[in-house]
Amino acid sequence: MIDRTxxxxxxxxxxxxxxxxxxxxxDEIKTISFPVLIHYPTYxxxxxxxxxxxxxxxxxxxxxxxxxxxxxxISHGNGGSHLLYRTISTHLxxxxxxxAMLEHFGNNRNNNILENTTENLETRPRxxxxxxxxxxxxxxxxxxxxxxxxxxxxxxxGGYTALALAGGVPRTKExxxxxxxxxxxxxxxxxxxPGAGWFMNSLEKVTIxxxxxxxxxxxxxxxxNGEIVLNYVPDKSKVIFxxxxxxxxxxxxxxxxxxxxNPNFLPSTDPVGFDREKFHSQIPTEILDFLNDKLND
Length: 297
Description:
Elements: E1 17-27, E2 32-42, E3 47-51, E4 54-60, E5 69-75, H1 86-94, E6 98-102, H2 118-137, E7 145-155, H3 157-165, E8 186-192, E9 210-217, H4 223-232, E10 239-248, H5 276-279, H6 283-294
Parallel strand pairs: 1-4, 5-6, 5-7, 7-8, 8-9, 9-10
Antiparallel strand pairs: 1-2, 2-6, 3-4
């Protein structure tokens, strides 16, 4: 019988239900705020809830299960949304993770004023750290976070964000160092088609485990981005790498509803013959296995 007063997620156990909570976090220095959606394990029965055009089977504001759980922050891509990785976030929550998905201010689908700016390179990692700070001090979650089991998942520009937080020193196209404070609370990162071009010869301080997926057909973050990670982290044995056959850059986004699938809406498209639904029945499990292994070291 499982002791339901405390939970160790690294032992085999039944999946939980997914609790959901929406937060707003402030950046006092920049005098801005940004939304964060949290998924976490609960025993309360979920129901279909609409989040914009997407439906998630969750239990809003449900009571979190007693115990200590790893915390994962998901960082979306350029001009993206924090709602686009729900297949990954819900799978992790069902298996005993607290998952925070923030919408990056000034670099999202509704407001992209910071695209291609140095300020965006500076603030993206900062807002992940602010999210971690907030959750570690929040009365709802702070008692349930395992402090030594924090990770980041990043897609595209989110991959840039994860590498900067892990100790990578980014530089602008002009060669100027970007002022980023690494967050050494982070113990593992997952990179999905990462934007790594800011880190040429500057990943020597990245020493934590990395799981990296790239797409075979990706004109946005082509193959050389993954090669930067493989070539410049100091310990190659820390990197688990897999190129996804026939995938495109947007194949890492959760499948879109049928009403949103359109050849002119590139995030909903994949290379001919690629099955995104099937892929997203597999990749959350691979990510979970990696995090279970590396955050338990």
